[in-house]
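We modelled the chain as a single entity of 386 amino acids. Its sequence is:
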Amino acid sequence: MKVLRRLGAAVVSAALIVGLAACGGGGAGGGTGAPAPGGPTKAPADLKVGVAMPTQTSERWIADGNSVKQQLEAAGYKVDLQYANDDIPTQSQQVDQMITQGANLLIIAAIDGTALSSQLAAAKAANIPVISYDRLILGSDHVDFYVSFDNFKVGVEQANALLTGLGVKKEDGSDGTATGPFNIELFAGSLDDNNTGFFFNGAMSVLQPLIDKGTLKVKSGQTKVEQVAILRWQQETAQKRMEDLLTSAYNDGSKVNGVLSPYDGLSRGIITALQNAGYGTAANPMPTVTGQDAEIASVKLIADGVQGSTIFKDARKLAEQAAIAANAFLGGQTPQANDSTTYNNGVKVVPSYLLPIETVYKDNIQAKLIDTGYWTAQEVASGQAG
């Protein structure tokens, strides 16, 4: 399977985790020497990690779950990996079971960042450390560590990619020759995902000055995150909203020039709506559409000149960082954070380790995704994971 092959390099890093346990941490994400919530425990073979992932409907979360599991198992831990199919009660029940069945640590990518308060209270009572994975868990003081990417920068780079597609900027960040005005529409993720605000605010920090200047026009008038959010990041919902926008705001013969989309799944729904409306021909070109996660179906669309860009967040490195943090906690230490100010969950500022991101366009798919082993040339050509 593709997921397992993509994890090959990660297994090597898992061996480093075992070394961290022996030396007591150190290095990026390693232990600081401070005691973790649970204190020193047992040998890895006697410890269990519960890993709660939101859904298997996205290839991204399948890859994340399998990567975290494989790295932890390579370090000797038992792993209970569960997917909740985007159902909040299911995830709550899964985390409850992980606690009652003896998990020594939890790694949680929450469906709803506010919906696990009772589970976190139970984990705290049982002295079980909690690592929030990519989506920050909100409203609880028992979130011990957060591993993610620089999510504000994700939004900034999506906005820059949109401007690059419009010709206002070049890929290197310098000014392009196009001056507009351009008609754009905005999409955001699910409001119950804390990342949604970071993505949207990052993007608007770049786009709003150009909207104010008149270079960009949001013809629908929908510029608030509450107006443009897509519940549960559903592709079908994004397609329906784009269809509605075309019917209501572009029924006068005007054209959409660009769409800010925060995630590849939404991008594909948006593109389907645009294609159904006649976009994508020589006479009616496809607007530039952004994305995120470098999902293989969207990478093919980028290679084919249909989707403009995507933000690549290497799930292998995120899983590695989660495993390093888990190893520190289970060894009785506190993981090393590289951000201790940004991520306030409403109760506390959660120590975080943030990873870098990269923007993928058609002309750098080879360097960013194929040469690094994330996808193969054959997979990009077919649009399917091998």
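As a brief sanity check on the tokenised model: The two ends are 6 Å apart (CA to CA). Confidence is low (pLDDT under 50) at residues 1-28.
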